[in-house]
């Protein structure tokens, strides 16, 4: 019952004390972590990740609505998955290694970590972690659904990075 009513820290606290410290909210009622191997360099995968206007090409249904200051720490952006509008703010921009941002949509606060690790043989491990918190969020968007969405995004980034390397 506690997780069902969990609201978590404020969005500012999540941004400053969690995302900027390269971690998600492990106490959140919905969390997911998935990883995939991509046969492309970390720099190539990074290019795909920071091409926010191209996210819709990589993953249909994703679209950038606004990006005020480019991909930079504390820069704000608005994007959408389908009809769900998400207001985001970059917390970590570490080229070739990590892109982390916080966001809020319909009262749900989230942290997304996109972490790249070069394998030494020219490939990249791409790990995606996310936490989501809001009262009752597990009832309408559970871990299974989040994990499936992550797998789709990971596979789409893999296809794009490998196709154009």
Please name the defining characteristics of this protein:
28% helix, Alpha-D-Glucose-1,6-Bisphosphate, Chain A, domain 4, seven-stranded antiparallel β-sheet, 165 residues, single chain, globular, alpha+beta
What does this protein structure show overall?
There is one protein chain. The chain has 165 residues and is α+β, with helices and mostly antiparallel strands. It has a single domain, classed as Alpha-D-Glucose-1,6-Bisphosphate, Chain A, domain 4 (2-Layer Sandwich), CATH 3.30.530.20. The protein contains five helices and seven strands, in the order αβααββββββαα. It has a seven-stranded antiparallel beta sheet, with helices on both faces. Strand 3 (76-81) and strand 4 (84-94) form a beta hairpin. Helix 2 packs across helix 5. The longest helix is centred in the last third of the chain and has 21 residues, at 143-163. It is globular and about 45 Å long.
Write a compact overview of the structure shown.
The chain has 165 residues and is of the alpha+beta class. The protein has helices at 11-18, 42-50, 55-58, 137-140, 143-163, and strands spanning 30-38, 62-67, 76-81, 84-94, 98-105, 108-118, 124-133. It is 28% helix and 37% strand.
Report the CATH superfamily: START domain
Number of helices: 5
Strand share of the residues?
35-45%
What would you report as the Rg, rounded to the nearest angstrom? Answer: 15 Å
Number of strands: 7
Q: Would you identify the regions where 5 or more consecutive residues have pLDDT less than 50?
A: none
**How far from one another are the termini?**
48 Å
- Categorize the overall geometry: globular
Judged by helices, strands and strand pairing, the structural class is: alpha+beta
* Helix residue percentage: 25-40%
List SSEs in N-to-C order: HEHHEEEEEEHH
CATH top level assignment: Alpha Beta
CATH architecture descriptor: 2-Layer Sandwich
Give, in spatial order, the strands making up the sheet with the most strands: 1-7-6-5-4-3-2
Q: What is the averaged pLDDT score? A: 95
Most strands sheet: 7 strands, antiparallel
CATH topology, by name, is Alpha-D-Glucose-1,6-Bisphosphate, Chain A, domain 4
Domain count: the total is: 1
């Amino acid at each position: 019952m506690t997780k069902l009513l969990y609201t978590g820290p404020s969005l500012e606290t999540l941004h400053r004390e969690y995302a900027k410290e390269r971690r998600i909210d492990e106490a959140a009622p919905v969390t997911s972590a998935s990883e995939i191997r991509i046969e492309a360099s970390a720099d190539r995968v990074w290019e795909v990740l920071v091409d926010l206007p191209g996210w819709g090409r990589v993953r249909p249904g994703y679209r950038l609505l606004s990006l005020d200051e480019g991909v930079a720490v504390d820069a704000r952006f608005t994007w959408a998955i389908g009809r769900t509008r998400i207001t985001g703010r970059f917390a970590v921009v570490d080229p070739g290694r990590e892109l982390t941002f916080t966001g809020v949509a319909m009262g749900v606060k989230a942290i997304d970590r996109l972490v790249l690790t070069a394998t030494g043989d020219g490939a990249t491990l791409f790990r995606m972690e996310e936490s989501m918190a809001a009262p009752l969020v597990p009832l309408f968007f559970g871990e299974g659904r989040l994990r499936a969405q992550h797998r789709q995004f990971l596979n789409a980034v893999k296809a794009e990075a490998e196709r154009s390397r």
